[in-house]
Amino acid sequence: MSQVPNDLEIKFQYNDRLGLKALVPKVPQSHVGSTYQNSFAVKGPRLWNMLPKDLTLMDDLESFKTNLDRLLLSLRDTPPVAGNETQIPNSLLDRQGTRDNKVLSGGRLKSTLA
Description:
- There is one protein chain.
- By secondary structure, the protein is α+β, with helices and mostly antiparallel strands.
- Helix content is 27%, strand content 7%.
- It has helices spanning 33-37, 40-48, 53-56, 61-73; strands spanning 12-15, 19-22.
- Strands 1-2 form a two-stranded antiparallel sheet.
- The longest helix is centred in the middle third of the chain and has 13 residues, at 61-73.
- The chain is globular.
């Protein structure tokens, strides 16, 4: 997908089994670590790596956006309710390790492509 700018210079690596993976930058060991860990430069690659392989390998930007919309609309979007700790977290990154049937083992989302 060379149709979009990569101003943050996020590096990508192809894997036969997983598709195109973004390399998550190392978090510095300092008091700034938590701020850095919450930055787009770190969270962006983590979210990208959750996408299904067939979505990450799309060449056409419009097809990618359409299929990304379809995938995101298939996910439950429930705002947090005080006192209800059993609900699925609203952040995709926080859903890893939950009983959400849309998140596969390894943290990837199930594909919605036919």
